[in-house]
Amino acid sequence: APVPPPARHLFSDPAEVEALRGNLLAWYDRCKRDLPWRTLAATEPDADRRGYAVWVSEIMLQQTQVATVIDYYNRWMQKWPTLQALAQASLEEVNELWAGLGYYSRGKRLQEAASKVVSELAGRMPRRAEDLQKLLPGVGRYTAGAIASISYGQATGVVDGNVIRVLCRLRCIGADSSSQAVIDRLWDMANVLVDRSRPGDFNQALMELGATVCVPKAPLCRECPVKQHCQAWHRKLFGNTPPVPDVEDCGVGDCPLCPPATEPWESSLGVTNFPRKAGKKPPRAMRTATCVLERRGCHGALEYLIVQRPSSGLLAGLWEFPSLPLAQDLQEEKEREELADHLQAWMGRHVAAKGLQFIGEVIHIFSHIHQTYVVYSLHLDGDVTLDPALSPSRWVTEDEFHASAVSTAMKKV
């Protein structure tokens, strides 16, 4: 049977829990950042509009910094102020507004979920976290908890990257914080801690603490409103736990939440000993040949050919210059030949490999891919007839290109 964690890792003292809640909420009331989605959530009287406003912000904030999201969020809410308006939008419109924000499937699922709410749920957002997660595409456990607590007052906890860091430091949890066993325990803690009368504010306060004070490196511990409850802070001040543990302390090597014996506390790191994660796999390397095909349009301006990517997979539905994945070890001459053959099959006319002008290489890092684009250009005289059975394509000016749903990587190209 699994070994249960000792009480010192948990929040088992009701008086301590109450004090932590009070201290954190008082700090949040004084120090919270002024963010547009918080203003909407606090001032919008209609529950569904409030839920939609929080939902959009939480999806955008996944894997993306607040400073980057603010402008996108304001433009999104101006264009689609209600989920009914979003349900009527096209994927092309969504991708155009989302361009540059990354992780493009988020916008697609948001639009699909809005359409489902309108067509299948009578335009009414689910109110409880369990139903939000079950019924809305792209809404996971964290997003569901955030919407339900902030918009509808459900007393449910949330666990995101900031909350993981705060809780692991508060309770010296040094086991792999990405493991399911630790994540489950953190959710239990979050549900114990959440303030019953102000669940939305409490959850935002916990996340705000992780984002502004209990940061990954160089945390501002002396400014922390809950440092007196933080075991990592006490350990930094007073050193290691005594050699003979208390009854409630961990045994040797059998606690599921302690750091492994091979990775003991490192004094120089202090509270940043926590959390600990398993080592990330390095991103896989990929090479892609990309050709910027250009021509003179009917008004004399240069135009560029862009094609649409498939509706699923990486960068689904976005537009790009004609591209071809390459083997890693190809010589430049062979790369040119493969790209020329690809363009020739696509355009139905001969393309000479020597006619492709090498421009340079562009490196773009996705979360799991180290992508190198080998960029060529080719000027075409006259019109080109493209096979309609292949990907959708169109000619665009430079301004039209930047207004289209193109990725940051293609803008670099």
TrEMBL record:
This is Adenine DNA glycosylase. Binds 1 [4Fe-4S] cluster. Its cofactor is [4Fe-4S] cluster. Residues 60-212 form the HhH-GPD domain. The gene is Mutyh. It catalyses: Hydrolyzes free adenine bases from 7,8-dihydro-8-oxoguanine:adenine mismatched double-stranded DNA, leaving an apurinic site. InterPro entries: DNA_glycosylase, Endonuclease-III-like_CS2, Endonuclease3_FeS-loop_motif, HhH-GPD_domain, HhH_base_excis_C, HhH_motif, MIG/MutY, MutY_C. CDD domains: ENDO3c, NUDIX_DNA_Glycosylase_C-MutY. Its EC number is 3.2.2.31. It comes from Tichodroma muraria.
